């Protein structure tokens, strides 16, 4: 059984979107995740023309900013539908759900709610995530990829396992975010081995382990840790890329592997480094 690992990029939203597309194309990328709704123009006709002119394609839509499914589910569903409409119009088949904001205020570090969900909240999370996946599948023909987030209540290995064990694999799969998971000390390779059929998409990030340990010791938010430099551009951090790519290749599945948190000026260097191992196209 063989599969294809397709390398994509997440947008660097700090620069104008046309410049971003130019730089990604020049760096050798052919796939792009939409990122926060509204950064790239939500007019599918305009965006398809701009992408085609650069031989770029959309690999997934991104839901972020609406919070987690255990909270205001009406807002979560509304934002997901908005993203799903655009994603489908652009010819992609995946929607990455990022449960952000989480339980902390990135700016102040204050706790907005408990870092652990109660049993009733877990029941809501599992039921609502399953419903979200069914809506995407049945109404839009899209697949939900749930991304753990370091400051949400699905972040560490135990929490990810509970999410996957408690949801229907027909409707919910994992966006394996190597940075957020490693930051929360999850064993990424163990998750791949334990849930080979649930890894449906990959966000490739690396973290500086020393800075991650410092952020944990100082009780920083993930946003504060990122500002401190915890998220690093390959090949500077962990997990190790060759070992990770070997585990993903062994799945024999077609997967998008999307390099995120790579500053636009470093896009070419990251692309060349990641493709140097083979296995990524």
Automatic annotation (TrEMBL):
InterPro entries: IolE/XylAMocC-like, Xyl_isomerase-like_sf, Xyl_isomerase-like_TIM-brl
SUPFAM superfamilies: Xylose isomerase-like
Domain (Xylose isomerase-like TIM barrel): residue spans on this chain: 21-261
Coiled-coil intervals: none
Stored Gene3D superfamilies: Divalent-metal-dependent TIM barrel enzymes (3.20.20.150)
Pfam families hit by this protein: AP_endonuc_2
Protein name: TIM barrel protein
Protein species of origin: Actinoplanes flavus
């Amino acid at each position: 059984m063989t599969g294809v690992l397709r390398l994509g990029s997440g947008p660097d939203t700090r620069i104008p979107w046309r410049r971003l597309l130019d730089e990604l194309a020049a760096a050798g990328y052919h796939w792009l995740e939409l990122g926060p709704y509204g950064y790239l123009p939500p007019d599918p006709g305009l965006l398809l023309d701009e992408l085609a002119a650069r031989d770029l394609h959309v690999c997934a839509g991104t839901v972020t900013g609406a919070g987690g499914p255990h909270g205001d589910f009406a807002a979560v569903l509304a934002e997901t539908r908005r993203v799903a409409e655009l994603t489908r119009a652009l010819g992609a088949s995946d929607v990455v759900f990022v449960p952000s904001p989480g339980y902390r205020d990135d700016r102040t570090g204050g706790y907005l709610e408990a870092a652990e969900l109660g049993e009733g909240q877990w029941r809501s999370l599992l039921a609502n995530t399953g419903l979200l996946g069914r809506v995407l599948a049945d109404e839009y023909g899209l697949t939900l990829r749930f991304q753990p987030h370091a400051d949400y209540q699905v972040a560490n290995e135990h929490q990810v396992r509970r999410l996957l064990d408690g949801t229907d694999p027909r409707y919910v799969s994992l966006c394996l975010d190597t940075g957020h998971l490693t930051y929360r000390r999850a064993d990424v390779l163990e998750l791949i081995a334990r849930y080979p059929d649930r890894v449906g998409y990959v966000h490739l990030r690396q973290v500086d382990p020393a800075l991650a340990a410092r952020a944990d010791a100082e009780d920083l938010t993930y946003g504060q840790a990122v500002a401190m430099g915890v998220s690093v551009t390959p090949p500077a951090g962990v997990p190790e890329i060759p070992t990770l790519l070997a585990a993903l290749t062994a799945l024999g599945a077609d997967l998008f592997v999307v390099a995120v948190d790579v500053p636009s000026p470093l896009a070419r260097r990251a692309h060349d480094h990641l493709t140097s191992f083979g296995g990524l196209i």
